[in-house]
């Protein structure tokens, strides 16, 4: 192809797609422009890259900039001073909020742990009782049905409590045996 003929399409070296040349143009930062010209400059250059814009955006940083990164980019000229100052203010405002949220989640988790352990122990107790009765290999055992119902009820109660706890609504009553006693009394009175 002659050198004086303008390119209309180009192949991306990363994804291999054929795209218009405008998809390969990108604006360099001041630091990149200075490095390309090998001298300080105040103008940002536009270059035709070997990768398309989509592939370039994939290689960009996904995590937000830290205060140190913002200050470095501001000093090198990669970020405009006004934009850098706004980003810095927003970050400084968000840091205490993030710390408060993390500590709140930490203490909520600490508050939930003993309740979750207690529920697990209570359900395990009913499970052991049910399995011990079931191991006797007597399907007509007097307590087998009762222990089976108590175990199922304990699991259901634990599931409901866990749903409430996950919504950060810790109920006052977290003991399973009280509910089962009430349930047994209710079924006895309704019969």
Number of domains: 2
Q: Strand portion, in percent?
A: 5-15%
Helix/strand structural class = mainly alpha
Mean pLDDT: 79
The value of Rg in angstroms is: 33 Å
Overall geometric form: elongated
Helix content: 55-70%
Distance between the termini: 96 Å
What profile does the largest beta sheet have?
2 strands, antiparallel
- Widest β-sheet, arrangement of strands: 1-2
What do these coordinates show?
- It contains six helices and four strands.
- It has two domains: 8-60, no CATH class; 108-190.
- α5 packs across α6.
- A two-stranded antiparallel ribbon has the order 1-2.
- β1 (9-11) and β2 (18-20) form a beta hairpin.
- It has helices at 30-37, 53-58, 67-76, 81-135, 144-166, 176-190, and strands at residues 9-11, 18-20, 25-27, 46-48.
- With 191 residues, the protein is mainly alpha-helical.
- The termini are far apart.
What is the secondary structure topology, with strand pairs?
Blueprint (H helix, E strand, L loop, with lengths): L8 E3 L6 E3 L4 E3 L2 H8 L8 E3 L4 H6 L8 H10 L4 H55 L8 H23 L9 H15 L1
Antiparallel strand pairs: 1-2, 3-4
Helix pairs in contact: 3-4, 4-5, 5-6
Question: Brief overview, please?
Answer:
By secondary structure, this protein is mainly alpha-helical. The chain is 61% helix and 6% strand.
Identify the notable features of this structure and list them briefly.
single chain; 191 residues; mainly alpha; 2 domains; two-stranded antiparallel sheet; 6 helices; elongated
């Amino acid at each position: 192809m002659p050198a004086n003929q303008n390119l209309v399409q180009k192949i991306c070296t990363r994804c291999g797609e054929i795209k218009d040349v405008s998809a390969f143009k990108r604006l360099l930062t001041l630091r990149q422009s200075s490095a390309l010209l090998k001298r300080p400059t105040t103008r940002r250059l536009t270059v035709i890259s070997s990768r398309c814009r989509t592939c370039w955006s994939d290689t960009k940083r996904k995590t937000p900039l830290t205060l140190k990164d913002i200050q470095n980019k501001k000093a090198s000229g990669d970020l405009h001073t006004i934009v850098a100052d706004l980003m810095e203010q927003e970050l400084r405002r968000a840091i205490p909020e993030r710390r408060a949220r993390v500590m709140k989640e930490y203490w909520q988790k600490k508050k939930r742990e003993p309740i979750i352990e207690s529920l697990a122990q209570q359900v395990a107790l009913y499970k052991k009782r049910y399995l011990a009765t079931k191991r006797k290999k007597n399907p007509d055992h007097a307590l087998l049905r009762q222990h089976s119902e108590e175990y199922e009820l304990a699991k259901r109660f634990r599931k409901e409590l866990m749903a409430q706890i996950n919504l950060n609504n810790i109920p006052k009553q977290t003991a399973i045996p009280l509910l089962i006693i009430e349930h047994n009394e209710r079924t006895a009175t309704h019969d």
